[in-house]
Write a structure and sequence with these properties.
InterPro entries (chain A): Cell_Proc_Reg/RNA_Proc, FHA_dom, SMAD_FHA_dom_sf
Strand order of the largest sheet of chain B: 2-3-4
Order of helices and strands of chain B: EHHHHHHEEEHEEHHHHHHHHHH
Radius of gyration of chain B: 25 Å
Biased composition (Low complexity) (chain A): 48-63
Distance between the termini of chain B: 35 Å
Number of domains of chain A: 2
Region (Disordered) (chain A): 38-74
Order of helices and strands of chain A: HEHHEEEEEEEEEEE
Low-confidence stretches of chain B: 1-10
Largest interface: A-B, 61 and 64 residues
CATH class of the largest domain in chain A: Mainly Beta
Distance between the termini of chain A: 72 Å
Organism (chain A): Streptomyces swartbergensis
Largest sheet of chain B: 3 strands, antiparallel
Protein name (chain A): FHA domain-containing protein
CATH topology of the largest domain in chain A: Tumour Suppressor Smad4
Structural class of chain B: mainly alpha
Radius of gyration of chain A: 24 Å
Oligomer: heterodimer
Number of helices of chain B: 17
Shape of chain B: globular
Largest sheet of chain A: 6 strands, antiparallel
Mean pLDDT of chain A: 77
Chain lengths: 169, 480
């Protein structure tokens, strides 16, 4: 076998070996999953976000216009008071659980919250419902303590301990 | 919807779940790649040694492809959300290991020695057994949490496996280390390789229960959390066992592996840096003490500190010295950056352990630094996927088990590679998947199987919320 062929094979093999490593790393890169939490700490960035939000509405309306419930369907849940203030969760038809249990969708760090405090879910018509899960200190919609699953109006404050959340478009 | 802010002073964050797709087709593509590379290497060795494509190319390629295919189909059926990388990585390492073992089989120098046996066919058989065990683990271990029930049985089992080589008549002393058992008609087994997995199960189950006591009940002293005496118990026991292994089986590698794995898992379970400090101190004290009176360990340390002197003594015919450490270093040196090319090195000069303990030297010589780096990266990727699995796992037992298994795997690679390259004293362990040795290949396939099972559980999307019976009932009574 000629020297040249062997040299080409030797370098070719190394190249193929490294190609495999690179492909594997690319797979890892495209394989990141789990809960994506984007922290936006600084004021400046928050301002930029607001700007972005101001530009966003027309687009948002278009999106929700295509949905089942038209323009009044809430698209996100926002924490407005308490330690988690500013957290948003996109509403995509999934059940959202609230409580101190670490597997809740929103984990409340709140002394007045029960481990499984309440849940928010869409009923068959796509109306979002809040239900108290037998919590110790209760869940309040506006000023009223919940006893049965109750539909949530857009922007109505749901109070759990020191945490207040509401649904927004 | 990305995010919103209700007031610029508040910190905001967005939580969005990204589902993990099953990724089985990615795995299949990578597997095909992982089978093609060893076939290429095989052809390369044949062309370099005999100027012809080796006659066994097709059957060898088909054999490896069949093993990979069976593994893939079983994973597709029984663990559809498992990690897409581990199986291809293990297949590739196993495949190029087989090629290099076959290449060393062709060496005239090794064939001349009186202990020569064709190792490649046996290794292929061991690999098939390994994949069979892998398949069995994937099929029969439906949920890794079942293993939690066997915490203390695992402890007894691991101790039994570790003590087995010491039993007279059963244990076999090979080149100074007593880590093999001889089963008549079956050959030799290295129970330590299996004990590694069983012990990880015990540590995970034990630490899951005791971690709060270990983490919280401690006094702060000079920035370190000192554990209470009674909590120190388990670490002392494990330390004592690993020292006993070192003394009676004279095997530095196994004791380092077990103790290291325990300290890693202890650290992960308790988040206390003090455990690492204690672990390092205790292993250092133990190793130095044992090295001061155990001649086999002393000799290994001597060979590590001054391999050239060792080589000279061995050449002069002084009994009990080895020229292998120095020869391995020469092999790495003569390989240079790009290597001499597969089949064109002289690493077969190393002699009897060239295809097991010292197989990395052949890679170093024939593939060079570039090849060794790629291979170490392949190992690093397996470990990374294991740790990633641990991060994704939802249950503490699965987390600890995944960390323990990948930690043990990483430690083994480090101990062997470090030993061959002269970073630490040489120990009698084998490179996972690459080196010739049935127990090692089989045990490591089982290890990959357990990791894949944990990752399948971890990456499986949460089941769709079942219709709530209460909600249905309220709708029935609702007026309208």
């Amino acid at each position: 076998m000629s020297e040249l062929t062997l040299t080409v094979m030797r370098l070719g093999f190394l190249a193929v070996l490294w190609l495999f490593v690179i492909v594997a790393v690319q797979v890892i890169r495209s394989d990141l999953f789990g809960t994506r939490v984007t922290q936006r700490g600084s004021r400046r960035e928050a301002g930029r976000q607001q700007q972005a939000a101001r530009q966003a509405p027309p687009q948002q309306r278009q999106q929700s216009g295509g949905g089942r419930r038209g323009r009044n369907a809430p698209t996100k849940l926002v924490v407005t008071e308490g330690t988690l203030t500013g957290t948003t969760v996109a509403l995509q038809g999934q059940t959202i659980t609230l409580g101190r249990a670490h597997d809740s969708t929103i984990v409340l760090d709140d002394d007045y919250a029960s481990s499984r405090h309440a849940r928010i879910y869409p009923d068959r018509d796509g109306q979002w419902i809040v239900e108290d899960l037998g919590s110790t200190n209760g869940t309040y919609l506006d000023r009223n303590r919940l006893t049965t699953p109750t539909p949530i109006a857009l922007g109505a404050p749901i109070r759990i301990g020191k945490t207040v959340i509401e649904l927004r478009k | 919807m990305s995010s919103t802010t209700n007031s610029p002073t508040h910190h905001t964050s967005t939580i969005g779940a990204i589902g993990a797709p099953s990724r089985r087709n990615t795995e299949l593509a990578l597997l095909v790649f992982a089978v093609v590379i060893p076939v290429f290497a095989y052809a390369n060795v044949g062309l370099a040694l005999n100027d012809s494509v080796p006659p066994g190319l097709l059957s060898y390629g088909l054999g490896l492809g069949l093993l990979a295919g069976v593994g893939h189909l079983v994973v597709r059926k029984f663990a559809p959300y498992a990690d897409p990388l581990m199986l291809p990585l293990a297949t590739l390492l196993n495949g190029i290991g087989l090629v290099v073992i076959w290449r060393l089989d062709q060496s005239k120098r090794l064939q001349a020695s009186n202990t020569f046996v064709e190792a490649a066919p046996r290794q292929l058989m061991y690999s098939a057994l390994g994949v069979a065990l892998f398949v069995a683990v994937i099929i029969f271990l439906k949920d890794h949490r079942v293993l939690q029930r066997y915490t203390y049985i695992s402890m007894a089992g691991a101790l039994f496996l570790l003590v087995l080589p010491l039993v007279p008549g059963l244990g076999k002393n090979v080149f100074g280390a007593r880590i093999w058992i001889q089963i008549p008609g079956l050959g030799t087994i290295q129970p330590g390789e299996f004990a590694k997995i069983v012990l990880a199960v015990f540590f995970a189950g034990y630490l899951m229960v005791k971690r709060d006591a270990l983490a919280l009940a401690s006094r702060r002293f000079m920035g370190l959390y000192l554990p209470r005496g009674r909590d120190l118990g388990p670490i002392i026991v494990v330390w004592a066992i690993s020292i006993l292994i070192l003394v009676f089986e004279t095997d530095l590698g196994t004791s380092l592996l077990f103790f290291g794995m325990f300290v890693i898992m202890l650290y992960v379970a308790t988040e206390r840096t003090s455990w690492i400090v204690f672990g390092l101190l205790m292993s250092a004290v133990g190793a130095v003490t044992v090295a001061s009176f155990e001649p086999h360990v002393q000799q290994r340390v001597q060979a590590w500190l001054d391999p050239m002197n060792e080589f000279k003594l061995s050449r002069q015919g002084v009994v009990g010295h080895t020229e292998q450490s120095m020869q391995a270093l020469w092999a790495f040196g003569s390989g240079g950056t790009l290597g001499t090319g597969l089949g064109q090195g002289n690493s077969d000069l190393i002699g009897f352990a060239a295809n097991s303990d010292f197989i990395l030297a052949t890679f170093g010589e024939e593939l060079g630094l570039a090849g060794i780096m790629a291979i170490l990266l392949l190992y690093a990727l397996i470990v990374e996927r294991g740790v990633r699995t641990a991060l994704a796992a939802r249950d503490p037992f699965g987390k600890l088990l995944a960390v323990g298994l990948s930690g043990a795997f990483a430690l083994q690679v480090f101990v062997v590679a470090g030993g061959v390259m002269g970073l630490i004293p040489l120990t009698g362990m084998t490179m996972p998947f690459l080196a010739y040795g049935g127990s090692s290949v089989i045990a490591n396939w089982a290890l990959i199987g357990i990791l894949l099972r944990i990752s399948d559980t971890a990456r499986r999307p949460a089941p769709a919320p079942a219709g709530n019976p209460d909600a249905e009932m309220t709708q029935v009574v609702r007026p309208s």
